[in-house]
Amino acid sequence: MEAFRHASLLEIHLETGRTHQIRVHFAALHHPCCGDLTYGADPTLAARLGLERQWLHASGLGFEHPTRHEWVTYSSPFPADLQHALDVIAT
């Protein structure tokens, strides 16, 4: 979605998968999620951004409703800590 000097903001569409799998795949590509110290993220960058966790957020989720059988979608803005980190890295 946007490239910054030290990180990129990505929109990832998953068919299946769990948070841990996302973390493993990006680390294997040598691009760990910001703040994900377990999988090789830069601790200095994480501290500068004020991140105490990995940057993962489901901003949108959609699925077929189990009883109505219609497609439903939900969206969620970034929580305060991730928005702060984005504001810092964008400057």
Backbone shape: globular
Low-confidence stretches: none
According to DSSP, the number of beta strands is 4
Separation of termini? 16 Å
CATH superfamily: Pseudouridine synthase
Average predicted local confidence, pLDDT: 93
Report the radius of gyration as a whole number of Å.
15 Å
Oligomer: single chain
Strand order of the largest sheet: 1-2
Name of the level-1 CATH class: Alpha Beta
CATH architecture: 2-Layer Sandwich
SS strand fraction: 15-25%
Structural class comes to alpha+beta
Report on this model:
The protein is α+β, with helices and mostly antiparallel strands and about 90 residues long. It has a single domain (about 1-90), classed as Pseudouridine synthase (2-Layer Sandwich). About 30% of the residues lie in helices and about 15% in strands. It contains three helices and four strands. The strands form two sheets. The protein has a two-stranded antiparallel sheet with strand order 1-2. It has a two-stranded antiparallel ribbon with strand order 3-4. The chain starts with a strand and ends with a helix. The model has no long low-confidence stretch (mean pLDDT about 95).
Keywords for this structure?
91 residues; alpha+beta; Pseudouridine synthase; two-stranded antiparallel ribbon; globular
